[in-house]
Amino acid sequence: MIYPIRLYGDPVLRKKARPVQDFAGLKKLAEDMLETMFEARGVGLAAPQIGLSQRLFVAVEYADEPEGEERPLRDLVRRIYVVANPVITHRVGEVEGMEGCLSLPGLYSEEVPRAERIRVEYQDEEGRPRALELEGYMARVFQHEVDHLDGILFFERLPKAKREAFLEENRAELARMQKEAKALLKELSQG
């Protein structure tokens, strides 16, 4: 099943998600979230982005796409992560980098500060405790997705002046997304 992705302006994106307590059915939900993410050509998707207030996200590490070929993302998967109830227990260094978001389609910032290396403790789709040490791009992806679980969007990590500039530059696009988010909520409540 492919879920509609919630857009900027949807209140679920601003709420702190509840911990996952029931792991029955989580595997199927994670598969659906992955399908939704592949369809949108993303690298990570948090449960709030599909309207579920749960501390759960999926992320994928991809192999590089062969030059000149556009292959289905599923064919490029190196590793899939299903992450419930994550806690970042250690952060090292800081580096700025490019980020975008499936809930803010088409909007990016090249200057989002994140820890260079992290350690994250979490539960897998069956509730088993896990831990990972990540650096570089995947550390950035995990921090971005954990922020979603806390109701934080990537541009809010920008220093104040850059955040204000981002909001000003993208005012019309953000207003359009808010309108679409409102329309989707109305449609979902009637369906």
Give a short overview.
With 191 residues, the protein is α+β, with helices and mostly antiparallel strands. The chain has helices at residues 26-39, 136-149, 160-169, 171-190, and strands spanning 44-46, 56-62, 77-92, 95-100, 108-114, 117-123, 129-135. The longest helix has 20 residues, at 171-190.
Task: Describe the protein's architecture and organization.
The model has no long low-confidence stretch (mean pLDDT 95). The chain is globular, with a radius of gyration of 16 Å. It has helices at residues 26-39, 136-149, 160-169, 171-190; strands at residues 44-46, 56-62, 77-92, 95-100, 108-114, 117-123, 129-135. Helices cover 30% and strands 28% of the residues. The strands form two sheets. Strands 1-2-3-6-7 form a five-stranded antiparallel β-sheet, with helices on both faces. Strands 4-5 form a two-stranded antiparallel ribbon. A hairpin with a 7-residue loop joins strand 4 and strand 5.
Q: Secondary-structure element order, as H and E?
A: HEEEEEEEHHH
Q: Which sheet architecture does the biggest sheet show?
A: 5 strands, antiparallel
Strand order in the largest sheet: 1-2-3-6-7
Shape, principal axes of CA atoms: globular
Q: Per DSSP, what share of the residues sits in E-state strands of 2 or more residues?
A: 25-35%
> Which value, in Å, is the CA radius of gyration?
16 Å
Cα distance spanning the termini: 16 Å
What is the mean pLDDT? 95
Structural class category = alpha+beta
Amount of helix:
25-40%
Low-confidence segments:
none
How many helical elements? 4
- What is the β-strand count? 7
